[in-house]
Each structure stands twice: as C-alpha cells, then as structure tokens.
C-alpha cells in the first residue's frame, strides 16, 4: 500500500482518473505537485488573483486560499495555509503538494470538522472492500471563519488534525460520544438528522467515494503485490483511513488517505494548561470505533465473511452484496491506457490479472 503513503503518487492516480472520468472524480480538490509544478502553480495563482480583484473592490475578496502539504508526513507536520499573494510560501527540494482550500465546509455549532472513515481491503485479487459503519469526527478548537489575512495563520480554526488541536486549551476531551472535540460518525449523523439533512444520501456519497478511490488504485496495488508476493504465500489486507470533509452543499471532499491510520485507543491530555506535560487517558470515543474495527477485521481475514454476525461493524461495499458479479461504481467503459503504460489492461475489470 505504499502507493498511498506518498501524496504526490496518490494525487497522480486520482488526476489520471479525473481525466478519464471527470464527472465521477469531482471529490478531489485541484492539486499541484512541488517542485515539478511550481511555475505552473505560480502562474495560475497570479491570474486568479488578478481576475478576482477585477470583480471585487475588497482586497480580501481577491485572494484565493491554498493548503500546502508535505508529500510524506503525518500528524499535521508541515501543513499550512497560503493565499495567492504567496508571501508565506516556502519552497524547498522536499516534495509536496498544494491544493485548493475548501472554504465552505459544513459546520456544527460553528466549528469545522472532518471525518475519519475506515475501509478494509480484504483482498486484491479478486478485489473485496469493506466499509466500517462507524468512524471519527475531528473538530477544530476555534469557531470557523472564512480565510482572511487576519486569520489565515490560525491552524486551530482551519486544520482539523487531532495532533494539532489536542494541545489547544479549548480542546474538549469527554467520555460522551456526541460532544467534545472528537466524536463518533454515528453521533454526527444523528446531529445532522435532527437538523433535517438527508443523512442516508450523504452516507451513500461517502461510500461511493471510498469505492472509487480504492478501485482506481487497484492496478498499482496489484503491481506492487505481484512484485513483493510472487509466491502468493501471504494474503495481504489493509485498513485504510479516509479523511473526508463535507461541504455546505453536502458533497464529500477527499482530503487525503492514510495507509496506516492510528488505531490507538488512548488520548493525551495536559496535566494542566501550559505545563507541557501530557498524560495518557482512556478515550471512550476511540474505543467505540477502533476496537470493533480491529476485532471484526481479524475475524474477517481469519474466518471469512460467513462468520460475521449482524452486530459486525463492517459492511461489504465491493463487490456489492446484492450482485453475484462484481460491477464497478465507475462507468464501465473500455479505455485505451497505452499512453499511461497499461497496454492491454482494463482497469475497471476486477477479475483481470496483470501480465
């Protein structure tokens, strides 16, 4: 699964699919690779800035916001926001990506949040995917306002990374599943349902997103698996973490995918604010989500789907349970991929073997 650990490699795969199926991969923000596409990004950012300023008399309204992410990293390290005056952009030889910042997130109690959803890749050949029915919602610790010059550096307002927000004095660590700075996906659905949102439709879009992303990576994953597992003595499986943002329009946006998501069920809290000393404490929210996930994943791999009961937290999303023959959620089209190096290979066919 190393193809997913590198942001640039992953973005290239999704961009490839956006060129082939532009209507089906609208959930990934516009992305540039650094340092290769630095000049291209600079030119496009400057043009957008001039165009927006012509249409508005307010200085801030002429600014587009972007987010800078190292290609390889974790815990929010090296992530920051920039606008298209590019005054705080730091470019080095270290590979990174720059994405258009999603400035219209869905808010709960005026706070921005994202979802960490889990997908189990049980097999690659034939492909089997399982979606965890529950997940995590990570909240910012400052009330959200659209990016402006006076708040663009406030990471606790714009970045939902748990590692960045847990050290804030406003971080709320609770045992309840529906309050605090970290909550369960089930509690978020209950909150949105009370506010009149069509939760079933949002959930279906999230599942569809996860399906398309993993299936688009299957060719690359099979190449890697054939290389390191030639004798087929191992059965590879993986738990993937999808970081997903919901917009005001109730559309899911894929922020990134984590090939080795944290399965830690403990939380950290500062003994008292400003001490710099942290102690470990139980996290009922993490226990509620991650313990069933690991338990049912191991049962699935060891005994098969037939041994899973109705209380299982995993549901099969590919192949669809109601279909005997696997069908891709992406339109079934016969595409020539010679220009991409996949001569004679139909990426959409789950039963095809690489040669």
Structural write-up:
There is one protein chain. The protein has 355 residues and is of the alpha+beta class. Helix content is 28%, strand content 22%. The chain contains seven helices and 14 strands. The protein has helices at residues 7-20, 38-55, 155-158, 162-165, 185-194, 199-228, 284-303, and strands spanning 31-34, 65-70, 80-83, 96-100, 107-108, 111-124, 127-132, 136-139, 182-184, 238-246, 252-258, 266-270, 278-282, 314-318. The strands form three sheets. Strands 5, 6, 7, 8, 9, 10, 11 and 14 form an eight-stranded antiparallel β-sheet that branches. A four-stranded antiparallel β-sheet has the order 1-4-2-3, sandwiched between helices. The protein is globular and about 60 Å long. The chain starts with 6 loop residues before the first helix and ends in a 37-residue tail after the last strand. Mean pLDDT is 82; it is low at 333-355.
């Amino acid at each position: 699964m190393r193809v997913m650990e590198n942001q640039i490699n992953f973005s290239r795969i999704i961009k490839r699919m956006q060129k082939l199926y532009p209507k089906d991969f609208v959930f990934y923000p516009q992305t540039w690779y650094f340092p290769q596409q630095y000049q291209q990004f600079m030119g496009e950012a400057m043009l957008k800035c001039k165009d927006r300023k012509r249409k508005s008399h307010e200085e801030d309204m002429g600014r587009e916001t972007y987010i800078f992410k190292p290609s390889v990293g974790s815990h929010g390290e090296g992530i920051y926001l920039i606008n298209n005056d590019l005054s705080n952009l730091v470019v080095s030889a270290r590979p990174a990506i720059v994405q258009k910042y999603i400035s219209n997130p869905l808010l709960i109690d005026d706070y921005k949040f994202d979802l960490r959803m889990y997908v189990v890749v049980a097999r690659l050949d034939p492909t089997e995917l399982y979606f965890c029915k529950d997940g995590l919602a990570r909240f910012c610790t400052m009330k959200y306002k659209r990016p402006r010059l006076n708040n663009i550096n406030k990471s606790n307002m714009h970045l939902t990374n748990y590692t960045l927000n847990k050290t804030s004095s406003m971080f709320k660590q609770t045992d309840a599943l529906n309050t605090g700075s970290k909550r369960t996906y089930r509690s978020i659905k209950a909150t949105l349902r009370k506010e009149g949102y069509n939760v079933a439709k949002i959930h279906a879009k999230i599942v569809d997103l996860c399906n398309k992303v993993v299936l688009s990576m299957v060719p690359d994953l099979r190449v890697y698996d054939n290389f390191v597992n030639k004798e087929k003595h191992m059965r590879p499986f993986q738990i993937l973490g999808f970081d997903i943002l919901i917009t005001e329009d109730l559309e899911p946006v894929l922020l990134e995918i984590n090939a080795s998501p944290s399965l830690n069920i403990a939380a950290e809290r500062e003994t008292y604010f400003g001490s710099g000393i942290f102690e470990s404490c139980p996290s009922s929210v993490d226990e509620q989500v991650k313990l069933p996930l690991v338990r049912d994943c191991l049962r699935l791999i060891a005994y098969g789907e037939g041994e899973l009961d109705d209380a299982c937290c995993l549901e099969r999303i590919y192949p669809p349970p109601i279909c005997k023959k696997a069908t891709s959620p992406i339109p079934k089209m016969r595409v020539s991929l010679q220009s991409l190096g996949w001569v004679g290979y139909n990426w959409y066919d789950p039963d095809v073997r690489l040669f």
